[in-house]
Amino acid sequence: MFDVFSSFPPMLLAFLAATLFVAGCVRGFAGFGAGMIFMPVASSVMPPASAAAAFLFIDSIVAAPLMIRALRLCEWATVLPAVIGSIFFVQVGAWLLATIDTLILRWIIFGIVTGLLLLLLSGWIYKRKPSKPVSFSIGGVAGLLGGISQVSAPPIVAFWMASSRDPAVVRANLIVFFPLAGVGTFAAYILNGFFTLDVFRLLIMAVPVYGLSLALGSRGFKKADPALYRKIAYSLIALAALISMPALDPLFR
């Protein structure tokens, strides 16, 4: 077993497991946020490409059962154009991930998470009915950022949450969007060689931890006030962004 995890010191493995557990609870509870929590933190202690590939595999496989109920609640008229846009532009994001310096990528991830979080907290509301071109464009931005960092949630979350839709519908849209959009990301990551042996070693720990945390988070959503999940997710995302900020490395590393 030691040989299996030889690339990951025990403390690093425990740190990643704890981060993934929190991320999974938020994902199960809110329908989004796992990548926004896991990626900024994980990419500060391991190569961003490896972190992104591991998270894509974990979230796509383990979170699939959440789609069963969400398929009946989501708004296909806005979800499908967003998925197509994401699949189209994720290739560009994956290329950037393969070519940009790690430190620059960390700053990009921090900027993405912080900027969209501020937009969500501002209370901005999108009052119009989303057209197919608008949904495609938002999905395209999400795909671009997802290819770079597996943090595709901010634009699509800001778009759907900045509306008067019921939280259950928003959550269903998000739960359906990410696995479908992930098909394009899988293809892009395979072409760029991101699925390494270290990634699959990490899955041995990550799959059971993420599966348990998703189940706990989903159970919590059923019992909680629907409006509460926004505050919880935003607080954890803000904390993850702060910890991952490269300028604060002397404090946290």
Automatic annotation (TrEMBL):
Superkingdom classification of source: Bacteria
Location within or outside the cell: Cell membrane
Keyword Protease: no
Transmembrane intervals: 52-71, 78-98, 104-126, 138-162, 174-195, 202-220, 232-252
Protein name, as recorded: Probable membrane transporter protein
Keywords of the record: Cell membrane, Membrane, Transmembrane, Transmembrane helix, Transport
Organism: Roseibium denhamense
Family statement: Belongs to the 4-toluene sulfonate uptake permease (TSUP) (TC 2.A.102) family.
Membrane topology: Multi-pass membrane protein
